[in-house]
Structure formats: structure tokens, C-alpha cells
Specification:
By secondary structure, the protein is an alpha+beta fold. It has 2 domains: 260 residues, no CATH class; 119 residues, Conserved hypothetical protein from pyrococcus furiosus pfu- 392566-001, domain 2 (2-Layer Sandwich). Helices cover 34% and strands 24% of the residues. It contains 14 helices and 21 strands. The strands form 5 sheets. Strands 1, 4, 5, 6, 8, 9, 10, 11 and 12 form a 9-stranded mixed sheet that branches. A 6-stranded antiparallel sheet has the order 15-17-16-19-14-18, with helices on both faces. α5 runs parallel beside α7.
């Protein structure tokens, strides 16, 4: 059973959504965010990456950054840039990227269900990143950006979302500077809210697709606020956190590619020979692999197609049979010496939206060899989560991205 709650969102004032809504905090460097927000004083980057508003001497002081984030958000509320809805609601959130369109529901998800395991995860989290997001959440008293969740297809939820969104124009509709179209419908009718909650009650599990650190941080902040509240009941706003939940077949994944700085002391010829002992390998003019258990490899100006051989990996293992695990276990670790891709500075990761041209560019700049991946599937993510296992790092890249600042959820009643 999925326990979801409506909430009165803080939203950009009429006509301000395209100016306020920003990319998530973790897809931009501070320098990129500073440049993007330089001519836009109402960009939500001033809230999620407030170091851009501080002098260099203060930008590295986390507590000063959190305090500036809180002040910037409060100023946006005081100035009427962000306005809180007067009644709790669910919010239909539609994303359109070219021919791809996906509908999700912005809801409050239960921290208890995350703790108990009916909200399932598939990644490890890092303590330092949890610390950062939890403190940011605690100081500001809001969920500044939504996490991306998914669930197995549910006809009742699909019919409700389609019926409500199809009956009227969206309350918010704009095209962001990257060409992604964002639309939001406010669902505040009590009968609609009850019907959506009833439909979600039949959903056995919700899966974290993107946002493991924000989800884990919401758990930590809940515990902090619970312990401070002698009258805690379990229904307070801090017991829930902001997520946009999509049907499994609505989501779009892209490959999450790798680039490596050197060949671990091997010449090009020796490396190709070793790779050929492990994989079927052939030159190609098509960088993208045709399917799973294949990779495009760029080396010395030439693309190659790598194909894993049957029997070289445990095909029935939900983790070891993933493309990221196969390449790591058969080539990156034993041949290129990348023992822990989470920590090794010789490897970097490129989101699929940047394409093969970015892999070629990096190989001409600071890297030696690149590997293009096929997208992981939502089924693979669910299989790993259902097995209570963990996917290899940097296995999933979702597009299009949810924007921060379009829907903000308060943690105080």
C-alpha cells in the first residue's frame, strides 16, 4: 500500500515559472549555476546552489551557504515570487521532450514506507552528500527539489491522471531554455484527491528512480524534527517528502557513459588485444550500441563495437548481468585498473543527453578511451531493488529532468 498525501505547494507566481524553475542542484557545477543565474535574480538556483551569491571566501562555508539559501527562499516568498497554495493538492506534472511525453504525480511520500522498504532503493548513498542535503532541508524547512519515483503500471492511476489533465488546460505550461516543456495541473478537488489515494493504495511498492540522497536525507530530517517535537503524531508534514511518481512505462532512460584517462600503461595495440581476448570486437561507424551487453568504444579516433561473450558473465544475476557490472568486472577493473569507480580519479561519467560527440571531445581533451552504453531499463532497476541489491554506480541517466522551484513542499504544518 502506498500512502501518499496532498500538500499546499509553494509555486512561482503567475507568469514567473519559466524564470524561477531551474535544473536540479546536482546536474550543474557552481560555476555553471553562477553563469546561468547571473542575469536572473529569481532563478531557483539562488536557493538550491546559494554559493553562487557568496564571496569566494564564504562559498566554501556550508553553514553560510545554507543560511543564504534560506534567506533567498524567504525573500522570494516575501516578494511574492513564490506563492503557497491555500489548500492541499496533488499536482500532475507533464514533461515533453521532442516526441516523448510523460505524466507524473507530485505527492508527499511516506518516510515510514521508505524505512520499512515499500519505497525501494537500488543505490548506495554517500554520507557527505546525505549530510549536505539533510542540513539544507533542515535549515530551509522545505523539500526544495522533488525526487523521481516510479511504480509498476496501474490502470486506475493512469485513467485518473489522463482524465483530469485531459479535461482542462494546465495551470502552468512553459518551455525551458533546454527545449523541455513543463506543464502542471493543480488537483485540489477533494473527490479527485480521494480517488488518487485509493488508487495508490493498491500499489505494493514505489521505486526510487533518481534522488537516493534526497530520499535518505528526508528520512534523517524526519528523525531530527520528530525528536524535537514532544507531541509527534506521525501525521506532521515532515513525515512525508516531495516526489513526482511516474508509471514505469512513462520514463525515458539514456546511457550513462564512461571515459578513462589512460590505458593503465598499455599501448593502444596491447589494450585492443587484451579487449579482444574478452569481448568480440570490431570497428564500427555507429557509436551507440544496438542493445544490452554491447558497448561502443572510442580509442585513438576510431569507434569499435564490443560485445560480451555468452558465459563470460552471470546472465541470471540481476546485478552482475548489468552492462555496467559486466564492463567493470571484465575490462575496467582487471585491464584498466579501475578498482572502485566511485573513488578512482581516472574515470569520469558522461550523461547520455550529451551524446557521443561529448565522448569524442573528452578523448581529445583529457581522456584516452570512452565507452558508450545502452540505456538501462526500468525493469532492471526494479529487479535489482526487489532483490534488495544495489546497482553499479552511475548506471542510470533519466531524461528529461524535473525542475526545482516549480513545486516546493514545506516541512512545517
Amino acid at each position: 500500500m502506498a500512502d501518499i498525501r496532498p500538500f499546499p505547494a509553494f509555486r512561482p507566481a503567475s507568469g514567473q515559472a519559466d524564470k524561477v524553475a531551474s535544473p536540479p542542484y546536482d546536474v550543474l557545477s557552481s560555476d555553471e549555476a553562477r553563469e546561468m543565474a547571473a542575469e536572473n535574480p529569481v532563478s531557483f538556483l539562488h536557493v538550491v546552489k546559494a554559493e553562487i551569491d557568496l564571496a569566494p571566501a564564504d562559498a566554501g562555508d556550508s553553514e553560510k551557504v545554507y543560511a543564504r539559501s534560506a534567506a533567498n527562499f524567504q525573500n522570494m516568498v516575501t516578494d511574492g515570487v513564490m506563492v503557497q497554495d491555500t489548500v492541499p493538492a496533488f499536482y500532475i506534472y507533464r514533461l515533453t521532450m521532442g516526441d516523448h511525453r510523460q505524466f507524473g504525480l507530485a505527492v508527499g511520500c511516506s518516510v515510514d514506507e521508505y524505512v520499512e522498504g515499500s519505497i525501494k532503493k537500488h543505490e548506495f548513498t554517500r554520507r557527505d552528500k546525505e549530510d549536505d542535503r539533510a542540513r539544507h532541508m533542515e535549515v530551509l524547512g522545505i523539500n526544495a527539489g522533488p525526487v523521481l519515483f516510479t511504480h509498476r503500471s496501474n490502470d486506475a492511476v493512469r485513467a485518473l491522471v489522463g482524465g483530469i489533465s485531459g479535461a482542462r488546460e494546465p495551470d502552468v505550461d512553459f518551455t525551458a531554455d533546454d527545449g523541455i516543456v513543463h506543464a502542471v495541473w493543480v488537483v485540489s478537488d477533494e473527490e479527485d484527491i480521494a480517488a488518487i489515494q485509493e488508487a495508490f493504495a493498491d500499489i505494493e511498492a514505489i521505486y526510487v528512480a533518481d534522488g537516493h540522497h534526497r530520499t535518505a536525507s528526508a528520512h534523517r530530517v524526519r528523525d531530527i524534527m520528530r525528536d524535537r517535537n514532544p507531541n509527534h503524531t506521525g501525521d506532521e508534514a515532515y513525515n512525508f517528502f516531495l516526489a513526482v511518481v511516474f508509471q514505469e512505462d512513462e520514463l525515458k532512460l539514456m546511457g550513462y557513459h564512461r571515459v578513462v584517462a589512460d590505458l593503465n600503461g598499455l599501448s593502444n595495440e596491447d589494450f585492443l588485444a587484451k579487449a579482444g581476448e574478452i569481448f568480440d570486437i570490431a570497428p564500427t561507424d555507429q557509436p551507440e550500441p544496438e542493445g544490452h551487453r554491447q558497448w561502443g568504444m572510442f580509442l585513438d579516433g576510431q569507434w569499435y563495437r564490443l560485445t560480451a561473450r555468452d558465459g563470460s558473465f552471470p546472465a541470471d544475476d540481476p546485478v552482475k548481468g548489468l552492462d555496467a557490472a559486466i564492463l567493470q568486472d571484465l575490462l575496467l577493473a582487471p585491464v584498466l585498473g579501475i578498482g572502485d569507480p566511485r573513488k578512482d580519479p581516472r574515470i569520469d561519467f558522461i550523461g547520455g543527453s550529451r551524446g557521443s560527440a561529448e565522448l569524442e571531445r573528452r578523448c581529445g581533451l583529457d581522456m584516452k578511451v570512452a565507452f558508450a552504453f545502452a540505456p538501462a531499463s526500468v525493469d532492471q532497476i526494479m529487479d535489482v531493488a526487489d532483490a534488495d541489491a544495489v546497482m553499479p554506480p552511475k548506471s542510470t541517466w533519466f531524461e528529461p529532468k524535473l525542475r526545482s522551484g516549480l513545486l516546493v513542499r514545506g516541512l512545517n504544518d
